[in-house]
Design a protein that fits this description.
Helix content is 31%, strand content 34%. It is of the alpha+beta class. Strands 1-2-3-4-5-7-6 form a seven-stranded mixed beta sheet, with helices on both faces. A hairpin with a 2-residue loop joins strand 6 and strand 7. The structure holds coenzyme A. It comes from Actinacidiphila paucisporea.
């Protein structure tokens, strides 16, 4: 349903187009980026993605060839752990299983060639679609950082979720 290719700066304009405003940017990436998502931030992100510290992918639809999503894993090789983040599906492709298929492929890389034993992530606790996506892949909530930051006039709470290689290998997730 989707294929992955390495993210490069050439795909950066897709990210900028898929994120429609500052609150959506925040919901997607927290404090990682600031609005507007400009060329300099994207260049720094692409450069980091070309190091062993991070892998980032563009998901594309083999049927039509168009890009449909983005995801990234920050790698802690010493701990054999990673942090899944920047999970984003093109607005017109949402709600069709693209996020689940893309994330399953990313986890295949994380637990495969990257050799990770554990993948973590953080998601705002009001992002029900993303939480459902991650739970479908087998992630469980370890704890909630309640009212951890204020932005856009409200407090935000972050669910911290994780998935181990053992749980992934057991294949209980529905997203693949
Ligand atoms: C979150 C996001 C990546 C999900 O991608 P998607 O392609 O729309 O999701 P999918 O179609 O694969 O659906 C994933 C799951 O969410 C469920 N879902 C879909 N829409 C939903 C909704 N509005 N509310 C709750 N669950 C929903 C699906 O039913 C599916 O669950 P299931 O497998 O149990 O049926 C996408 O909506 C997005 O890019 N959002 C903006 C950026 C963002 O919030 N990123 C996450 C940062 S942590």
């Amino acid at each position: 349903m989707v294929e992955l290719r390495d993210f490069t700066l050439a795909d950066g304009r897709l990210l900028a187009a898929w994120v429609e405003g500052p609150v959506e940017l925040w919901a997607w990436s927290g404090q990682s980026f600031s609005w507007p998502l400009d060329e300099q931030q994207l260049a720094e992100y692409a450069a980091e993605s070309a190091t062993p510290l991070r892998r980032s992918w563009t998901a594309w639809d083999p049927a039509g060839g168009q890009a449909v999503g983005h995801a990234s894993v920050r790698v802690d090789a010493a701990e054999a752990s990673g942090r899944l983040g920047r999970v984003l599906v093109a607005p017109e492709a949402r709600g069709k299983g693209v996020g689940a298929a893309m994330s399953a492929r990313v986890l295949g890389h994380a637990f495969g060639e990257l050799g990770l034993e554990r993948v973590e992530l953080g998601v705002w606790d009001d992002n029900s679609r993303a939480i459902r996506l991650y739970e479908g892949l087998g992630f469980v909530c370890d704890h909630v950082l309640r009212d951890v930051v204020r932005f856009a006039g409200k407090s935000w709470s972050a669910m911290q979720m994780s998935l181990t290689r053992a749980a992934w290998s057991a294949g209980t997730g529905s997203g693949r």
